[in-house]
Specification:
With about 750 residues, the protein is an alpha+beta fold. It folds into 6 domains: about 40 residues, no CATH class; about 100 residues, membrane protein fhac (Ubiquitin-like (UB roll), Roll); about 80 residues, Ubiquitin-like (UB roll), CATH 3.10.20.310; about 80 residues, membrane protein fhac (Ubiquitin-like (UB roll)), CATH 3.10.20.310; about 70 residues, membrane protein fhac (Ubiquitin-like (UB roll), Roll); about 190 residues, membrane protein fhac: a member of the omp85/tpsb transporter family (Porin). It is built from 13 helices and 30 strands. A 15-stranded antiparallel β-sheet has the order 16-17-18-19-20-21-22-23-24-25-26-27-28-29-30. A 4-stranded mixed β-sheet has the order 4-3-6-5. It starts with 13 loop residues before the first helix and ends with a strand.
Length: about 750
Amino acid sequence: MKLLNLKKGIIYSHDYIYRVIKEGYSKGAFEYIGIYKREGKNGVSLLVKVKDLPVIYDVQFVGNEELSSEELRKAIGVPENPQELIEQQTGYISGPAVEEKLKLMRLVPIGRPLTVEEIEEMVRRIKLRYALEGYPNVKVKYKIVPVKGASKLVFYIEEGRREYVERIEIKGLKHLSEGEIKDVMELEEPNIFLLRFHPPFSPIVLKNDIKNIERYLRSKGYFEGKVENYSVKVSKNGGVTVTIRIHEGVRYKVGKVKLEGNTYFGYKELTKNFIKKLKKEGGYFDRRLVELLKEEILKRYKNLGLYFTRVDIETEPNPGTKTVDILVKVYESPPTYNRWTEIRGNYETRDYVIRRELELHEGDLVTEERVKWSKIWVQRLGYYAGVEVKPELLTPEYAKTRVKVKERFTGQFSVGIGYSETSGLSGFLSLRKGNFLGTGDIIGLTLSWGEYAKNYSFSYTRKWFLRKPQDLNVSLYSSSHDYDTYNVAYKGFSTTLTRRFWHYWKWHVGLDLQSIDYSDISPDASIYVKEAAQFNSATILRFGFERDTRDNYLFPSEGSFFSLNERIGGILGGDEKFAKVTLKGSIYKKDPFFDSGTIFSLRGQVGSIGTWGGVDITPIDERFFVGGDYTIRGYKYGYAGPLDPNTKDPIGADKMWTLSAEADYPIKKDFFYVAAFADMGNGANSWGKLFSDIKAGVGFGIRFITPMAPIRLDFAWKLKKVEGDTNNFRVHLVIGSYF
């Protein structure tokens, strides 16, 4: 009776009984409720007859072949082992708190009575899940099967024939391209390069695509544009041809651009770039440019410290003049200061590790630049799957900054095999722990062994050494390499101090102390190897600086990189006495003309090494080997530089330069690109020869962008043959980034 809220002593009325029955059904526990009145001397007696809905303890799927039961469970929100989940949700409730327990049980879609409406909703979700996989004609029936005091809900599924998109035809276009329309659609055509052979067809997705197309037409200024009609033709084998006819109409131009509420900045300051881009577009309305105008206005205000300024933009199309006026309303906020910073989500990381990376501190004026760089520095730690830095308004003048991180596992254990021209077939084992003990420090151990090379190293990086934005790295290493005509082994100690300054700049200084052991030198070995074999030790001082504005380290699309590095051997002792300088630079830019998404890049490097202190021998492992994956593609490693006159093996160069131009066109943005490139350069032992015998290679390639690293496969042709490497064509595989 508690569920029906009936008790002795209540005042009887027809309206009250009606509400009791209605509310009883709404609680989803009864299949039938009947209340009968009997009048007597002492008042009214009620006879209540109810039939409970069966308790559904689990679900089962019959007839599903294309979708697994696990996938269908996810679709309807019923987990595996639902009884355990229910016990976790409601097991702690006891006593008379029936309503509370029932309320919590409703959060779990199983383990309780289900209404017809709830079951029908599950049926709808199953059909939707199948429709998205290309089964628009699926049939779903259900039956409640009693099983010892509870019941099982069984869904019987007839999947029907799968339908897939064979072709999408866009008709009626006069100015827009088919590619533009297809890019805003979720339905996709087959694509061999993306291994998309039979993309699923769904009427539900198609209806949503029609809305997306009309939304896109308006965003490009076709305010009268619409989808006139569309048709679907299904072949015998299930292939679907979708035909969409579009009426573009006249494309509206921008009429007046009006601003309201701006007192800190003038009209020209806020609209100058927008007007410039608008003229470049022929004056036509484009929602993308309008959004850029909004972003630019907000950026100006936020960097002034008026962080919570709001900008609303209204468009007013005029069918008579075929123009659209733009009204920009600016709601300026007062200057806002950060009262406190709250760190969340750092279960392993200590608070100070995150706080020291922030550029927005307590008491600071809140600006977009401080918020942006706070997020960048925390992200660059590499310990978090997600980073959010969000100021939240407390009063008009004060805010709190909420820094929320999502930690990821920073310990890495890797075992694998690989192959390269220099190391042959090799295996490796790597142990690395970032954010060691929550301090932000990094500890690592690497073991690798192969046909021709072995390497063992241990390293430790102390972040924010001496409480400054600088890192101190210390490492011990032992490596050996077996070449055709000699073997060489190194053992040593290395330390590097890296300090960042300003936003994009770093400098570093380091020291390497190592022993060198040449062995098994063949009589056929190069004279340069035999000369270098007299070196037993090296003390190398390293220093340099770099500027890096790339938007992404793995696969940049904008920004630039520049570095200058110096290595000096022998100044603090050791047999090798040399000075080596390397200058590298690269620039990346997206297509500014056609907005095709193509990424253009230009990379170059120049290097020189010389001896000092009466030593005329340049260490062979410090020389420049030009040709190969990272310098001039089309050539084997080192064969675009000097060769031993006797063995025709590369011996490295004292001087070098390379220049590479590349264009990467997106087949699928941020995942798959095709590329065309041209490389040129040379390696020589004198400046005069450096520019007299230039080598070059051209080709094309493909790029797969993965979360770990980009995979680059290049097919390159050399434009000038060299001794020892007479093939015209070479394939290059690189996992990782260039500089």
